[in-house]
């Protein structure tokens, strides 16, 4: 009976820290939404909201790390339970970094607004890749919650779309800078903003890879997609 009670407590702790990760994910998603709104409407108010949410994201990451350290220290988990806790730790780190990238987006938007060059540059073109990155994160969190490896694989494939959007946008910015050197400063802000969006996609991809690691016990980082598909069929 005592062993069953301890097992039940452990399960409750695992469920609790997993729920905290989803809560963190929700906060980060709201950061991205505010950053995209700031970009679309050149809103300084939205920029400030991103910074405020960033403080909560950072605090929650620290809290989850403490919870994980406490669980591992007291329970000394093995096998799948240990993989789950390690995956939660890595997912938390990636979510915090997504928050950092959203904050970078907001800072770049503020710089563009203050430069006065916002209307003369193709900032609206970034909305497509920003929406793609936001959608990837949402789907990655859903796949993590449901341990859905098929959804995780689809996310890995989707990351290529954001990379292509980034490459196309860079080419367009270069054209703007060559044609009008006065736009170079603001164009560089947009370039850093585009890179932040691409990095959000990369971190979302990392979360998707953790789903496969958790379910299959195999680290698929730096693995070709066809090899990952083979792993999922095994």
UniProtKB/TrEMBL annotation:
<dbReference type="Pfam" id="PF01895">
    <property type="entry name" value="PhoU"/>
</dbReference>
<protein>
    <recommendedName>
        <fullName>Phosphate-specific transport system accessory protein PhoU</fullName>
    </recommendedName>
</protein>
<keyword id="KW-0592">Phosphate transport</keyword>
<dbReference type="InterPro" id="IPR028366">
    <property type="entry name" value="PhoU"/>
</dbReference>
<feature type="domain" description="PhoU">
    <location>
        <begin position="22"/>
        <end position="108"/>
    </location>
</feature>
<comment type="subunit">
    <text>Homodimer.</text>
</comment>
<dbReference type="GO" id="GO:0005737">
    <property type="term" value="C:cytoplasm"/>
</dbReference>
<comment type="similarity">
    <text>Belongs to the PhoU family.</text>
</comment>
<dbReference type="GO" id="GO:0006817">
    <property type="term" value="P:phosphate ion transport"/>
</dbReference>
<dbReference type="InterPro" id="IPR038078">
    <property type="entry name" value="PhoU-like_sf"/>
</dbReference>
<dbReference type="InterPro" id="IPR026022">
    <property type="entry name" value="PhoU_dom"/>
</dbReference>
<keyword id="KW-0963">Cytoplasm</keyword>
<keyword id="KW-0813">Transport</keyword>
<dbReference type="GO" id="GO:0045936">
    <property type="term" value="P:negative regulation of phosphate metabolic process"/>
</dbReference>
<dbReference type="GO" id="GO:0030643">
    <property type="term" value="P:intracellular phosphate ion homeostasis"/>
</dbReference>
<feature type="domain" description="PhoU">
    <location>
        <begin position="130"/>
        <end position="211"/>
    </location>
</feature>
<comment type="function">
    <text>Plays a role in the regulation of phosphate uptake.</text>
</comment>
